[in-house]
From TrEMBL:
Keywords: Disulfide bond, Electron transport, Redox-active center, Transport. It comes from Actinotalea ferrariae CF5-4. GO terms for cellular component: cytosol. It comes from the Bacteria. The keyword tRNA processing does not apply. Transmembrane segments: none annotated. Belongs to the thioredoxin family. This is Thioredoxin. Residues 1-105 form the Thioredoxin domain. GO terms for molecular function: protein-disulfide reductase activity. It holds the Pfam family Thioredoxin. SUPFAM superfamilies: Thioredoxin-like.
Length: 124
């Protein structure tokens, strides 16, 4: 599957309607972003079952703020609509592959139970 571009209008739909979504927050002027781009593109070709999406932080500043992007590139991984990974910095191909393997291996029932427990604890 080719990499898709996400906007403020398409972001939520993309991460909630697909099983696994990787999102690369980037900008044209960012050297590490340009370095990571071919790695991300190759991953999209190798894993057509995973949505590989990009958010141009210059064009989508409100979305970048909402996602609390502090540095770029930042990679986020969503599984079944839940943010399960976020890390700034350009990843080498083998590290991106490990992230994807780990995201696929998650027990989402356990993840949801942990999130519910955290929300309950925060309420006091």
């Amino acid at each position: 599957m080719a990499t898709i571009d996400l906007t403020d209008q398409t972001f939520e739909h993309a991460v909630t309607t697909h099983d696994v979504v990787l999102v690369d927050f980037w900008a044209q002027w960012c050297g590490p972003c340009r370095q990571f781009a071919p790695v991300f593109e190759e991953s999209s070709r190798a894993h057509p079952d995973v949505v590989h999406a990009k958010v141009d932080t210059e064009a989508e500043q409100a979305l970048a703020r909402a996602a609390q992007i502090r540095s770029i590139p930042t990679l986020m991984a969503f599984r079944e609509g839940v943010l399960v990974f976020a890390q700034a910095g350009a990843l080498p191909a083998d590290a991106l592959e490990r992230v994807l393997t780990a995201v696929r291996a998650l027990d989402m029932d356990e993840v949801r139970a942990r999130l519910a427990a955290q929300r309950e604890a925060a309420r006091g």
